Amino acid sequence: MTNVYERPLTIIHHTISSNGQDHFYICPGHLKDKGFCSPIVDEAEVAAKKKKEELDREIELIKKEYEERLKKRKKSKDSKQKEKDKKKTEDDKSGENKTDNVDDEAEKEKNDKVRHTSASETLQD
Question: Which of 54, 60, 76, 104 measures 20 to 30 Å from 87, CA to CA?
Answer without folding.
Answer: 104
